[in-house]
Structure formats: structure tokens, C-alpha cells
């Protein structure tokens, strides 16, 4: 009898733990209707790894949900890959660096590539090392509509880069009874 009582007590205590993953998934932001209705996608790879872009192209082709287009202007959504820091082209000043006396004639503005942290460019949080942020961007407003961070530190793990997006599509479609 004492053993049965202990087992029941353990079951009552552990039962809620079995439902935690489902609750954690419910707290993820769902996809806006504009994303769910998207038919075309442009992949904007802001990482330094071409292999990630290749993986995304392969995964999108296997999924078959979205058609890849060659410019953001042709896309319903933009799928942006970023890993924390990237280089952004910005206009430079007309003054040359003090160490470059030869270029200090002030002739033309210098264009420079400047490292920009992702945090300063509007991302929600920094991307942990060995991971990649996948953001769904509205190409007209450049606003982020959805994002996920996935481990991409080895090729086998990187093949699951779009799992979060596929799951978000599935959850939204199930909630609306479409598919």
C-alpha cells in the first residue's frame, strides 16, 4: 500500500512535466497571415557561410511550400539568415584617415564596409556562437514578422535550419483548419 501511494504521488508530481514541451511550443509567436499566405521567398544570406544558403535552398525545395525568387522585390517574404555580425555598406566621410596622408586631398567620399552588430540593426537578441537566426521579413516594410534561432555549427544540424518555420506553418494551418 505504501508503494502504491508513493507511485501515485510521483505520478501526480511528474505528470505536469510531461506537458511542458507542448506548453513551451504554444508560447512561440505564431505566423502572421501575410506569411501564411506567402507563395514566393527571397533568401537573404547575411552570414559568411554560403553552405547555409545552399542548405536553405535545398530545404525549401524539399518542402515545396514556397517558390524561391531572385530578388526581394519579387518575393512575398524574405528569409534572412544572420549569425550575429555582418558587414554593411555605408557611405564614408570625405575626410581620409589621419594615417593616410596621400588620400587626404578630400576629393571624393570614400565608401567603406563597416561591421554592424545584428543587435544594432534591429534584431531581438544576439545570436549565440554556432547558431543562425532565421527571420521572415516583410520586403515592403523591412519589418521582421517571425524569427527563430537554430544551431548550425555542423552540416548535419544545419539541415534542420527551417524546422521552426515549417512547424510554425503547420501550427497556424492546423489552428485555421487549412492544409
Description:
It is a single chain. With 179 residues, this protein is an alpha/beta fold. The protein has a domain at 31-82 and 124-176: Rossmann fold (3-Layer(aba) Sandwich). 34% of the residues lie in helices and 24% in strands. It has six helices and seven strands, in the order αααβαββββββαα. It has helices at residues 2-18, 20-26, 33-36, 50-63, 155-158, 163-176, and strands spanning 40-45, 67-68, 77-82, 85-91, 111-117, 131-137, 144-151. The strands form two sheets. It has a five-stranded mixed beta sheet with strand order 2-1-3-6-7, with helices on one face. Strands 4-5 form a two-stranded antiparallel ribbon. Helix 4 links the parallel strand 1 and strand 2. The longest helix is centred in the first third of the chain and has 17 residues, at 2-18. The radius of gyration is 23 Å and the shape is globular. It starts with a helix and ends with a helix. Residues 10-27 and 96-124 have low confidence and may be disordered.
Order of helices and strands: HHHEHEEEEEEHH
Compute the average pLDDT: 73
**Separate helix tally:** 6
Q: Under the CATH scheme, which architecture of the domain at 31-82 and 124-176 would be assigned?
A: 3-Layer(aba) Sandwich
Q: Strand order, main sheet: write it out.
A: 2-1-3-6-7
Tell me which oligomeric state these chains represent.
single chain
Q: Span from first to last CA?
A: 51 Å
Name of the level-1 CATH class of the domain at 31-82 and 124-176:
Alpha Beta
CATH topology name of the domain at 31-82 and 124-176, in short, is: Rossmann fold
Contiguous runs where pLDDT drops below 50 for at least 5 residues: 10-27, 96-124
Radius of gyration: 23 Å
Record field, number of beta strands: 7
Net shape: globular
